[in-house]
Structure formats: structure tokens, C-alpha cells
Amino acid sequence: MTQPQNITVLTAVSNNTVKTFYIDKEGLLKCQPYGKEYLFNHKQVQVSNIADLANQLTTLSKKKNAILIRGTATPGLYQPTDRKKEKFPEAKDGCHWVMIDFDNLSVPEGMNPNSTEALNYYAQKLPREFHHVSYFYQFSSSAGILNPDGTPLKNGLNAHLFFWFDRPVNGKKLSAYFELHCYKSGFYKKGFTKKKHPHIYHGVDLSVITSSVQPHYIGLPILLKGVTCTLPPEDRQGLVKKIRHVVDLPEFEASLIPETLSTRRRVLNSWKEECGQVSKRITTRAAHGGISVSSYYCNPNGPSPSSNKIFLEAKSYGENDNSIILYFDGEHSPGSFYVKKSSPQLAIRFGDYSSMPLKELSDGAYAYVRDELKWFSEISYVELPLTEAGYLPDITSFVTSRNSLIVAPTGSGKTEAFCRYAETKNGVIFYAAQTIALVDQMYSKLKRWNHGEDNSPLKNYIPATRYSHFHQGKQLE
Questions:
Q1: What pTM did the predictor assign?
Q2: Residue 471: pLDDT above 60?
Q3: Has residue 411 got a pLDDT over 60?
Q4: How far is CA 258 from the centre of its chain?
Q5: Which of 270, 248, 96 lies closest to 188, judged by CA?
């Protein structure tokens, strides 16, 4: 038996944290969802093992306003308070327990999704350290509930499994451990978000593990008169005893999180490519003075779908204020996107960490990062077709920056286009090339042009010198 560990219980001040199901006047099944609570009282309860945890959860599940979180209240935190990460950070070593959230998982034909058989079936899809280990389960609030026509309100397995560990584990490392396992074992499925973005759905919901303040809803549902449920109250939750009572986790390597991130990108990007998306890049001048190149995927026939959200504010996020969380008007889940200083033109979505151009997400957020934070300055990009003869068009229409780079095929007239552009500019022009031969070629051409040959556009060109070599600190003419 381990030493008693503290678990944080939050009690909502004014709203229920359980779902209520009822039949309305038209005879339709309705659900009153969790109340939007902002203030909670907090307390610590001591638990030593899975049996203790099961007893506490059984008691707390009968309350209408209790939830669990992985975080621990900071010393002297007042009552009641709002549920924020800075007020309830996870302990440095993490927690001794975890809640595994299974959502809408299909079961084999003939298997009852609201049974311990289904629970055991999916428990075996977890890492091998979880096999044959005792757990406490709670079927979700909607499990077993039928619509008036007799069809299930929700299909598949929907349940929470609680396990006890041999040691405390940090949530971010634990989340990476589960995510990498899902990729390697194929315990995930490809799908789309509500806005039709390609998305990877893991067999384990990682949000309740990663965040220190993500609510763990543990209250039993309230079923009012007329609601039919095939799941008996005594079977909705319970302790399933196995050979072992503790999960003996492996030691996590330092490479765990980087490997998980790399695998995530590979799997998600492969799915995006299957959906016809293409990779593109954004180039900007970064705050430190260098050039920042960021990559993202989008639909080939236009920008990523976006409502161009109304920007409200940004808050610092991460170490050394190198990231910000964005907040927009009317967000269903506030703070769903963040921006990193290292890639300031991309908005990254929490959850699947997919990215999209910040300007497509919100003009206001784009201007804030560029003008207020000054994390980047724009580098304009113009893509123009060659003329019918295969030459560059007039470049004076788009070469407007102090520094410009022209990329075009060999023989498309880059040199002549530049010379014609240079005629319109006052100042000294330096021409550089990879080899002396190319510099000689340019020198001869400009010299002929200067003497009126070839209908020269540079009538006032005066060559200063051919080329210089620097060797062992000495200039050689």
C-alpha cells in the first residue's frame, strides 16, 4: 500500500455538474447539460489505493455538484475560486491515478456496450501494463438511455476507467505515453472536426490527462419521469478486481514527448494528404532579425476554411512568454488556439495541434502579433506566370521590398529583367554570382550595353571593377 495521496475535489457553488434527462411536452427526450459554473470550493481527500479511490468516487458520484481535477490548489487559495491552471497546477511529480475516457467506441457484434465485457475488451487495448489490473468504472451519463422510439441515445461504449499507479506521473508525459501507444497499436481513427478539418481521434481522450484543470465529471445522471434506461443503477459504476491492483508503469525516456510529437505530425499530415490537402510555407522576418519559415497544410483550391474570428485578447502561455493563447468573440471553447514566437504566422489548435495561417483565422490576431508584439514583419510573396515566350514579366510591379528574391527557371531572363528594373533606380548596384565566369559574362554584357550596343537599357552604366578575390587576407585584382 502506498502512502496516502491527496486528490482535489471541486464543488460547484451554484450549478449542477450532472446531466438531467427528461421528456418534454412533445414527448421528446431532452438533456439538461452540465451547468456553466465559474466558482468552486476546493478540498483535498486522501486516497491510498484503487479500493480507496473507488469508495471516494462512489460517495462523490451521489452529489450533484462535485468534480475531480488533476491539479492541486496553490497555498492560501481562497474559497470559492475560479478553475484556472495557475491556481490549480499539477504537482511536479504528477498524480498516482488516471481517468481513461472511452467515447463512442464500437464493440464486436453481439456484445453489450454497457457491460463489463465491453469494458474489459477495451481495457486490453491499453498498454500492456494495464492488462489484468483492477479498475473502477463509471458508464457515461447517456449510457443505456433510450429515445422514445426505443433506439439508443448514444451508441458504442461510453465509459470512464480509473486506475492507480505505482508512482505519481506527470500528466503531459502520461498523455504522450498514451498517445504514442495509440499510434503504434492502431488504437485511433481518422475523421473530421465540425469544421471539416482532417483530425485524428485517439482511442483514449487525452484532454482529461494533459490539463490540470480539465473537469472529471463523476456525478450520476438524474433521470426524470418517463425516461427509459436499460442500464440498472447498481451497474452504472463499480470496482472490477483483477490479479493486480496497481499499474506498474515503465520509466519514461527523455525522448518520449519529442517522439510523440514527431509521430503525431507524420500520422496527421499523412491523413491530410489523403484528403487532398497540400503543404505550403509562410516566410516572415522574425523578431530576432532572422527569417522564419513555417509550414502548414491547406486545401489546394483555396485557403483553409475560416470564419475570420473577431480577436479579443491574448494571454502569455508557456515558458519565457514565448507563446500566447488567443481569445475570440463567441468561442464555444475559449482559448482554443495559440501562437508560438518561433512560428508567429501560424495559429495552432489545442487538442490535435494542427496549424493554419494566423491571417486566415483572424485579421485582428494577425495584426496584434505583427504590430503589438512585433514578433514578425511581413515578407511579401508574389507568384506570377512566365510570358508566352517563356520569359519573366516586368518585375517593377512586384519588387517593392528592400530585399527581394527572384526565383525563375534557367534562361527565363532574370538578368535582363533585373537590368531593366535597375535602370529606374538611383544608387550603386553590386552584381554577384557563384563563379568568376558568370561575373565576367555580366561584365561584358553591361559593357556592351554601356556603349550603346544591344539597345542597352543602362546608358549611364560605368563599370567600377571586374571582380575581386580575397585570399589569405590580401585583395587580389
A1: 0.72
A2: no
A3: yes
A4: 15
A5: 270
